[in-house]
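Milestone M4 deliverable, item 7.
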Amino acid sequence: MREIVLGKKAKELHIPISFYSAEDAKDKLELAANTLGAIGAKIITLEIFAPKSFEAAIADFTRGSEYPINWIYPLEQASKPLLAGAHITALSGIEPKFAKAGDSTRAVCYSDENISYCRTFGITSDIPNSDPYAHTIGNLHKLEKALSLFGFNYRDIVRTWFYNDDILSWYAPFNTARTDFYSERGIFNGLLPASTGIGAPNPSGQRIISGAIAIKGAGPWTAEEVDSPLQCGAPKYGSSFSRAVEIRTPYSKRVMVSGTASIEAGGKTAHVGDIDRQIRLTLEVIEAILKSRGMNLSDTVRSVVYCLRPEYYENFTEWAKKNGTFPHCPSNSIVCRDDLLFEIELEAAVNTL
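Output delivered:
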């Protein structure tokens, strides 16, 4: 479990879990809940990376819950090795507030030291899958609606997630819709959020399931875009997100690194067909971002390792044996280009008080 100090009272807690079976998931989730309960912490979001066969275990754990939940399936429901896990974000020291609109739109808000945070996950669109552009716009509106439950708006967002089923077949209209929405909301005139855009199915059957983190308040605090020393900005090739965002408060600093893959400085895919070299470059890019902010991989509090093929996770674990591991969840998912085999998103933090 890793901690981020939010203020005099509050701490954000992060617990990554890997699952080896549905029974293992049930046991580990129960253990995590007991651990958090013993210190008076409450779960504020749950991310699930697991096949449909885990449904009973997840349902048992989440029954009666108020927190936002995001669940994506692996590309192969019976993949071997099984890549499955969960990430629990919890809060200690203060009470979170939960709200929902309809059956699926949920958000959580918590505040300390005049800084308020809002998180949402599991957001789906009201627009049918048949029109990718309109479906994306619908999802973005729902994301905004979830934040508005606590008085936040889209310009308060520092990070987003978009899990797009069959992403390669419609990534262009998704990017166009997001760019148009951001232009309309004036996002490009302020902070461009960090983001993940990954290909994965979900239990709802919708094209997109999304989430976000937003921050506002008197502070003092700052949120600013962080450039990648080894890559160009994503907008240069049509994707509207920043490489990373750094948030600073008097109590901590954190860097939210967007989904990162083997892309060279000019924007082209590097090391096509070579999983080991793609893993190596991906981690070099992330390490360079962290180093530019005075951090390294040992400061990781949350990360997700996305592998196009389940067996590629073994290549990653070999890299980790030589270079050092860090907290993460594994997932069998499609990266946003057909020649990218591997991607990581990561959040690192250092407590300053």
